[in-house]
């Protein structure tokens, strides 16, 4: 990588058929695409081999790009329990791969990610991809065929937005509470 980044965030959209990944480089307050793509797993019949490939790919991305943080989409609650279990396993394996390299993890719910990118928590994958293209000034040829990649990039961008917010004051909510908590700092 020729670019020098202050910070690198990897985003993961876990899946057992297709896993999306996206990496953002942060220079100052400006996010830029480093890479995004997908890991296609549907050709592997064995679920455990799919998990192994997820682990290998995430480990490889972490070793190649040395991200400072990982943002991952949290599993949503669905009606098919078996699908949820498989998705949870895929997420767990991706998390374990990053933790094995001491990369801190943050999870985001799908609605929060969509809200951060589009302003609509019920946005479609296409709407998220279109907004990412505008926000990050991506050229049409940079846009992937599978939207799992843009979903992963959206997780990384959501994390950038969330982690860039100023920390709100943890002080008392009123002068009365301040005086009660700090009687020594008030002249009477």
Beta-strand residue percentage: 15-25%
Strand line-up of the largest beta sheet: 3-2-1-4-5
Sheet/helix structural class: alpha/beta
CATH topology: Nucleotidyltransferase, domain 5
Percentage of residues assigned to helices: 40-55%
Low-confidence stretches: none
Helix-strand pattern, N to C? Answer: EEEHEHEHHHH
State the end-to-end distance.
Answer: 62 Å
Number of strands: 5
Topology:
Elements: E1 7-13, E2 18-27, E3 30-40, H1 47-65, E4 69-73, H2 81-99, E5 105-108, H3 110-118, H4 125-135, H5 147-164, H6 175-181
Parallel strand pairs: 1-4, 4-5
Antiparallel strand pairs: 1-2, 2-3
How would you summarize this macromolecular structure in one to three sentences?
The chain has 188 residues and is an alpha/beta fold. The protein is built from six helices and five strands.
How would you characterize this protein structure?
The protein has one domain (7-185): 2-Layer Sandwich (Nucleotidyltransferase, domain 5), CATH 3.30.420.10. It is built from 6 helices and 5 strands. A 5-stranded mixed β-sheet has the order 3-2-1-4-5. It has helices at 47-65, 81-99, 110-118, 125-135, 147-164, 175-181; strands at 7-13, 18-27, 30-40, 69-73, 105-108. Helix 3 packs across helix 5 and helix 4 packs across helix 5. The protein is α/β, with parallel strands linked by helices.
Features:
44% helix; alpha/beta; 6 helices; Nucleotidyltransferase, domain 5; 188 residues
């Amino acid at each position: 990588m020729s670019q020098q980044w202050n910070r690198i965030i990897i985003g993961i959209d876990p899946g057992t058929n297709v896993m999306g990944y996206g990496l953002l480089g942060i220079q100052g307050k400006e996010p830029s695409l480093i890479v995004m793509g997908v890991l296609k797993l549907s050709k592997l019949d064995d679920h455990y081999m799919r998990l192994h490939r997820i682990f290998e790919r995430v480990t490889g991305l972490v070793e190649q790009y040395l991200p400072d943080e990982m943002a991952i989409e949290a599993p949503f609650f669905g009606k098919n329990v078996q699908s949820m279990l498989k998705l949870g396993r895929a997420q767990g394996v991706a998390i374990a791969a990053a933790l094995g390299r001491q990369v801190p993890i943050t999870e985001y719910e799908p609605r929060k990610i969509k809200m951060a990118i589009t302003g609509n928590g019920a946005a479609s994958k296409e709407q998220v991809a279109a907004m990412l293209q505008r926000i990050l000034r991506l050229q049409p040829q940079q846009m992937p065929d599978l939207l799992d990649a843009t979903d992963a990039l959206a997780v990384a961008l959501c994390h950038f937005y969330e982690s860039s917010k100023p920390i709100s004051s943890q002080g008392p909510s009123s002068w009365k509470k301040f005086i009660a908590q700090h009687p020594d700092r008030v002249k009477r």
